[in-house]
Write a structure and sequence with these properties.
Organism: Thermomonospora umbrina
Helix content: over 70%
Strand content: under 5%
Keywords: Membrane, Transmembrane, Transmembrane helix
Number of helices: 12
Protein name: ABC-2 type transport system permease protein
Shape: elongated
Largest sheet: none
Structural class: mainly alpha
Length: 296
């Protein structure tokens, strides 16, 4: 005997096709950028996620405020720190900020295997990378620009001589801060993207920055003992902070903050080309890394 005939029922539960205006690529980029920038500062995350970035921002600001206060008390404008050298003087704080926040932007999606979910929507691989890099650069830029601006305003309030020259130095320092943010952000994201666990990522970023700086300082010390100052200057290009400092000194007329910089006239252009190659190469590596992560 034939069994009972089963029939199905189609229920109209109200789903409809979207017929509104498509917001487009710019909106996607802006949304990804804002989301990653908020994550870099711990905004929208638990309170413990905000402690480290804001604490480091306060540490970055404290020397500038103290320097301005000392200038106000002593009436000695020469005590004001040179604007372009501020990032080099506080490179340890910047390195810690980068090491703690780069894994938040670069490795969380890879660790939890959610990258394919992003690319299941109309999100381009390159857009995804550029939004993350822009957010990391903005976070680093904010970290560095605020204390430099405090120094500049403090100098104006305390009536430093030749305010026009100080304005030019301040503008040059802003360009330098942008270059620092681009170079350091690129390095930090690449290292963090290949270390999905956050603890390993923090250690790896600090190791890359600090070990490269230590290696360069040791080699430069040996070279200068042998009076080979040209070689010492070129070796500085192997450390990220020295690399950007070379651009500031040779192309922006800043005071030297590193041990040595490559000689003119080729030192500045070569350093700038290395910065550009480092940034573009990092974008290419990140693009390949996240594209591979999307295929897992």
């Amino acid at each position: 005997m034939a069994g009972p005939v089963r029939t199905g029922t189609i229920h109209d539960i109200g789903y409809r096709h979207y017929e509104g205006r498509r917001l487009g690529r710019a909106y996607v980029l802006r949304s990804l950028y804002v989301h990653n920038l908020r994550a870099a500062w711990g905004i929208g995350r638990p309170a413990r996620a905000k402690v480290m970035p804001f604490l480091l921002a306060a540490v970055m600001l404290l020397p500038a405020a103290a320097d301005v206060a000392s200038v106000a008390i002593t009436k000695e404008p020469d005590l004001l720190w040179p604007y372009p050298a501020y990032a080099t003087y506080l490179q340890v704080v910047i390195s810690i900020f980068l090491a703690t926040q780069a894994p938040v932007l670069a490795s969380r999606e890879l660790r939890f295997h959610v990258v394919p979910l992003y690319f299941s929507r109309p999100v381009g691989h390159l857009d995804f990378v550029l939004a993350k890099l822009a957010a990391m650069v903005t976070a680093l830029l904010t970290l560095m620009v605020v204390p430099v601006t405090v120094l500049y305003i403090g100098g104006l309030v305390n009536k430093v001589p030749d305010s026009g020259e100080h304005l030019l130095r301040y503008l040059g320092a802003l360009v330098g801060c942008l270059l620092y943010a681009l170079v350091l952000g690129s390095i930090g994201l690449v290292v963090a993207a290949f270390t999905p666990r956050r603890g390993f990522g923090v250690t790896a970023v600090i190791a890359v920055l600090m070990l490269s700086a230590a290696f360069v300082v040791i080699v430069q010390g040996i070279a200068e003992e042998q009076t080979n100052f040209t070689f010492s200057g070129w070796m500085g290009l192997l450390a990220p902070f020295n690399l950007v400092d070379a651009v500031q000194v040779r192309l922006l007329g800043a005071e030297r903050a590193a041990v040595a910089v490559p000689p003119a006239p080729f030192g500045g252009p070569v350093a700038l080309l290395l910065c550009a190659a480092l940034i573009l190469g990092s974008i290419a590596i990140l693009h390949r890394r996240f594209r591979k992560g999307a295929d897992l």
